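Field log, afternoon session.

UNIT: design team B
ACTIVITY: writing a sequence onto a fixed backbone
BACKBONE:
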């Protein structure tokens, strides 16, 4: 997949964004028959399609409460041999807020971001995800979340550290997801901003 994204704030409360992506998948050549000279007759199992993502973000004006919505993988139908299908279209809607705003706590000293997201994929049942991030002194982040209606995993947790050294912002994040069918998943991310 290769894509180009564009986002723009239309006002201090409302922002939109879009992504155009070229998606390709190659499952290799498949033998469909043998000719009279015992040569294989093959067919290429490759497809290409343009897909689009759209999203909006609305800051409600009530403390730090934000509302977001997105549509991902909007595309035409593609076809392998005789089977037609569309990319997994996904609708998402969510809310987030630093709940310590209700207590008038300085967000530079600490914050508790809580987010709720509802996901409606075309090819699976709806899911609700709930998560939280406690940030202390804009340096240490503790995270936890739960994914409802998921067959393989539910609870996730993580930690992150942010530092500024000589004008360069550095971040290290770690997350842990217990996985029922396979090994547990550990993820690490390193970020740098100039």
């Amino acid at each position: 997949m290769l894509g180009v994204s564009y986002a723009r704030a239309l006002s201090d409360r409302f922002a939109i964004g879009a992504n155009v992506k070229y998606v390709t998948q190659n499952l290799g050549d498949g033998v469909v028959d043998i000719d009279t000279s015992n040569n294989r007759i093959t067919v290429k199992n490759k497809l290409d399609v343009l897909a689009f993502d759209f999203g909006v973000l609305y800051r409600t004006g009530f403390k730090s409460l934000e509302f977001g919505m997105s549509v991902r993988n909007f595309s035409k139908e593609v076809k392998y041999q005789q089977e037609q299908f569309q990319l997994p279209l996904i609708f998402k809607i969510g809310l987030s807020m630093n709940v310590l705003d209700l207590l008038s706590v300085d967000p530079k000293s600490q914050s508790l971001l809580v987010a709720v997201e509802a996901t409606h994929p075309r090819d699976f049942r709806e899911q609700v995800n709930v998560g939280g991030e406690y940030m202390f002194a804009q340096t240490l982040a503790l995270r936890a979340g739960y994914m409802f209606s998921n067959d393989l995993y539910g609870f996730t947790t993580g930690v992150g550290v942010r530092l500024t050294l000589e004008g360069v912002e550095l971040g290290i994040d770690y997350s842990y997801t217990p996985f029922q069918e396979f090994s547990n998943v550990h993820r690490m991310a390193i970020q740098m901003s100039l």
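LOG NOTE: Residues 77 and 85 are 5 Å apart (CA to CA).
NEXT ACTIVITY: expression trials, pending approval
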